[in-house]
Design brief:
alpha/beta; 8 helices; 14 strands; Alpha-Beta Plaits; globular; Rossmann fold; 2 domains; 7-stranded mixed beta sheet
Length: about 290
């Protein structure tokens, strides 16, 4: 594992979910990375955070944000390597998902009793995200676990927006092969590669830098997982449906967007099989086998 590096954090306060969605979409486009939503106890504000390896890009992004949204009280703060590691150690804990998965922070592997009959996924998030603790990732892992329990074993899989590669690792642990995991963030893929090695995965998963808004795929995939965000899923819907010959897992959808996302994919022929949500986020399992 590489040594942790210092991080500069752009923190953006939002007064309500609609404002948070606006800021999130802007940061998604400007940073080429999804901001993280941080919930603080006893605070009415919603905080969005974007993470940078260098100070100058973080400050330039803050200036651009304040030009685009005059009056926003965004700030850039430095987080040392030790503090960043401590952040994850406080916010990321072992978690069992479904009947067969157990997500374990890499730094706790010698201190945690592993449940029997579960596949252990070791994760060190680094600057990428996807630990299983957030509803969006948890839902995707739950769907992969359910499909495995049903005997599903696709000969190809696409993990679109793979982040830490946790979905691909889960799939590979179940013996699935020919997995393509893509993300537009090179830093995320570097961490994904380390997570694959952490889990002793040396083949079966291919990592690729890809901007889904600009380039696409020649193959069709019997399983396609897209943990992105609602607006991007709706924009990419025709391409996603064309790329999927069977089952599609969608997540990163805010509950207020769920009907719109379901309508767009339904109009393209996808059949909703599962839709689950918490108070803020939603995920869907779709059957796309009849879309072609």
């Amino acid at each position: 594992m590489s040594e942790p590096a210092d991080v500069w954090i752009l923190s953006v306060p939002a007064r309500n979910p609609a404002e948070a969605e606006t800021f999130s979409a802007w940061l998604e486009t400007a940073c080429d990375a999804s901001p993280v939503e941080v919930e603080l106890v006893d605070q009415a504000l919603i905080w969005l955070e974007a993470y940078f390896e260098e100070e100058t890009p973080a400050k330039l992004m803050n200036y651009a944000l304040q030009d685009a949204f005059p009056g926003v009280e965004s700030v850039v703060r430095h987080c040392g390597a030790k503090d960043w590691t401590t952040f994850w150690q406080h916010h990321f804990h072992p978690i069992g998902i479904g009947k067969s998965l157990f997500i374990l922070p890499e730094w706790l592997r010698d201190k945690t009793e592993i449940p029997e009959d579960r596949e252990v996924i070791l994760i060190n998030p680094g600057l990428s995200f996807g630990t299983g603790s957030h509803f969006t990732t948890h839902f995707c892992l739950e769907m992969i676990d359910r499909l495995h329990a049903q005997g599903f074993k696709p000969d190809h899989m696409l993990d679109a927006g793979c982040g830490s590669a946790i979905l691909s690792i889960a799939a590979r642990k179940f013996g699935w092969d020919n997995i393509l995991a893509v993300d537009f963030d090179e830093m995320a893929l570097e961490q994904a590669a380390e997570n694959l090695l952490l889990n002793d995965i040396h083949d079966g998963v291919t990592l690729e830098v890809k901007d889904l808004t600009r380039t696409w795929f020649d193959k069709k995939y019997p399983l396609l997982a897209a943990n992105l965000y609602g607006g991007l899923l709706m924009e990419l819907a025709p391409k996603l449906v064309r790329a999927c010959s069977g089952t599609m897992i969608l997540s990163g959808i805010r509950t207020i967007e769920a009907d719109a996302v379901a309508t767009i994919f339904g109009q393209l022929g996808a059949i909703e099989k599962v839709c689950e949500a918490d108070h803020e986020w939603c995920g869907m399992l779709l059957d796309c086998s009849g879309c072609h």
